[in-house]
Specification:
Elements (H helix, E strand, L loop, with lengths): L1 H11 L9 E6 L7 E6 L2 E6 L12 H4 L10 E13 L8 E4 L6 E5 L5 E7 L10 H11 L2 H4 L7 E12 L8 H11 L4 E3 L5 H22 L5 E5 L11
Parallel strand pairs: 5-9
Antiparallel strand pairs: 1-2, 2-3, 4-7, 4-8, 5-6, 6-7, 8-10
Helix pairs in contact: 5-6
């Protein structure tokens, strides 16, 4: 839904989106006249720019194009992990559920009307093997309100993955993933439901802080907070709710 919104917005502005561009390379990024080259089929293309925004992720070409002496990284590793389970079951709710519990955070999301995606916060020392399906479902139910837990449909997992997160802050990097993450939270048409153990106020404060950080820190410095992921198994997106 967010992708559709962005495409429609771009069309209204009369912009152009180029697909199937191979071998994309930014040039002269430290000058006032940067430019980009790419290849469409057998034809080489060039675009002269006023500025370049590289939103192709941590492993993308944009970040790799920044000279080593022009970038400084600061890393913070969070003291918890996410255990994600994908199951061929009907979602417990048509809305996202964020639940804060004394045993840890929990998230209920969905891929479709027949495939569900669930996450729970776990210890960094845990591995996928420590969490068989029965243990996962039991722990998830404990962290959800009783009315929600009673509606939860369980079943064999078709994918299970463990994710550990760190924040990286390149000091002189003009990427846009922070905007993508915040816009994903704000513009996504899918409604958000805060469980009874996680008041709406918590979510509102979180969004407000994101906007303040963007305005006061991200915008002036043109910095980004990409999220680096480690997968022990599975092919999940690695981002809770993704």
């Amino acid at each position: 839904e967010l992708t559709r919104d962005l495409y429609e917005g771009r069309d209204r502005l009369g912009g152009m989106v180029i697909h199937n561009a191979d071998d994309v390379k930014p040039h002269d990024m430290e000058t006032s006249s940067p430019w980009i080259t790419w290849r469409e089929g057998d034809e080489d293309k060039r675009l002269d720019c006023e500025y370049i925004v590289g939103a192709d992720g941590f492993h993308g070409v944009s970040r790799k194009s920044i000279p080593d002496d022009k970038i400084t990284e600061y890393e913070r590793v969070y003291p918890f992990g996410w255990l994600g389970v994908l199951s061929r079951t009907k979602p417990v709710s048509p809305e996202l559920i964020y639940a804060r519990h004394e045993r840890g955070f929990a998230l209920c999301s969905m891929r479709s009307q027949k495939i569900s995606r669930y996450y729970i916060q776990v210890s960094l020392e845990d591995s996928v093997d420590d969490w068989p399906d029965d243990r996962f479902w039991g722990e998830l139910k404990r962290r959800l309100p009783d009315d929600v837990a009673g509606e939860l449909i369980t079943g064999p997992s078709i994918e299970k993955s463990m994710h550990r997160f760190a924040l990286l802050l390149p000091s002189r990097c003009a990427m846009a993933r922070c905007f993508w993450l915040v816009m994903r939270l704000i513009l996504c048409r899918q409604p958000v439901r805060a469980a009874s153990t996680a008041p709406h106020l918590t979510f509102i404060i979180f969004i407000t802080l994101c906007l303040i950080i963007m305005k006061k820190v991200m915008m002036p410095a043109l910095t980004i907070i990409p999220t680096r992921r480690w997968h022990e198994c599975g092919k999940g997106s690695g981002f809770p709710g993704g």
